[in-house]
Amino acid sequence: MTDLSNESDQEQVNYSMMDKKRKYALLIEAHSKDLYKYALWLCKDKNMAEDVMQEAFLRAWKSLDSLREAKAAKGWLFTIFRREHARQFERKQFQYKDVESMDTIEDSSHMGYDDRPEAFALRNALKKLPEEYREPLEMQVLGGFSCDEIAGILDISSSAVMTRLFRARKKMRQILGHESTPQLGVVGE
User: Fold this and answer.
1) How do residues 27-59 score in pLDDT, each as one tens digit?
2) Among candidates 123, 148, 150, 126, which has minimal Cα distance to 136?
3) Which tens digits make up the pLDDT trace of 124-164?
4) Which pairs with CB-CB distance under 8 Å and at least 24 residues apart come from 101-104?
5) By mean pLDDT, which of 17-21, 42-46, 99-103, 173-177 is the weakest?
6) What is the DSSP string of the chain?
């Protein structure tokens, strides 16, 4: 009698038996919304985000056979997107907009774009974080990735991710004024 209680093995068998078109359709359906949110956040421009996503989806299609596990699909797709985003900057010289105008993303009402003052303050505080801290925090908050998944995408250790997330939150609290920073004073005052 065979034991079919291990559902992950059964899912893996079902995934490996699917044809390429079906796998791709499921991949896009499952992760395009999260990737689009991340793309808008990273690119700060709707058109650029859509262009980079299209290129990433094309690369995903071409290398879909290299994806062996269905549960690794989200991290795999985000990694492809990050690399494609980096390629865009290598290839093109963009005309940069005024930094203040980058806060407004056209037609973002369908995403639930938050225009409250608190959200504005959070976005501005995030901009002040160094990229090494901002990126893992954005991936965790916007992409819903675990520390291990972020580590795989960024190609760093899980402990490095946890350290960066801790430091990012600490810096965010300092920037937002929720945590006092030690002040150096003159001794003897």
Assistant:
1) 889 888 988 988 888 888 888 889 899 999 999
2) 150
3) 888 888 989 988 988 888 778 888 989 988 889 999 999 99
4) 102/44, 102/45
5) 99-103
6) ------HHHHHHHHHHHS-HHHHHHHHHHHHHHHHHHHHHHHHSSHHHHHHHHHHHHHHHHHTGGG---GGGHHHHHHHHHHHHHHHHHHH----PPPGGGGG--TT-GGGT---SHHHHHHHHHHHHS-HHHHHHHHHHHHH---HHHHHHHHTS-HHHHHHHHHHHHHHHHHHHTSSPPPPP--TT-
Residue with tokens 């990433």: 56
Q: Residue type at 160?
A: A
Residue 116: both structure tokens together = 């409250």
Stated pTM of the model? 0.51
